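Hey L., structure's done. Input below.
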Amino acid sequence: MLKKIALAIMFILPMGVSAQTLKFGHVVSNEIITAMPEFAKAQADLQALEKKYTEEIQRTSEEFNKKYQEYQQAVQKDSLPQNIAERRQKELQDMMQRSEQFQQEAQQNMQKAQTDLMAPISKKVDEAIKAVGEAEGLTYIFDLARTAIPYVNEKTSINVTSLVKAKLGLK
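Output:
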């Protein structure tokens, strides 16, 4: 996509230079996002959620280990009839499957929570970038954090990161 834009600019630039001077800007959105108080809150919320999941996973793991050790001791003493031993084996297998399923669900929920918490932050930054681009009369603003751009000429491309931070009221 970026290559297509650059190619289009190369063809349009010679034709339109006399009519209008194109102005380009670039921004480092990660620098802006990490400075936002919303980001700090989102990170804290994610860490709290991760802690809850970790504690639950640890609790179920300890419960499984305890039941497994009890089962092993009973088997070694040869004190369990065959049908009870098979039932306990089945219970242990079920516990393991539930634990694995919970871990997968926890991972998916963490990813969804991260997406849900970061979406409004990214949207706010994108809106500020657009507002700065319009205010500065820029043709394009490239985000160096999201798109690999091998070269940025600081003389012809304006770094608008500080302007976007100012638009958002950040230092």
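The chain has a mean pLDDT of 85. The radius of gyration is 28 Å.

-- N.
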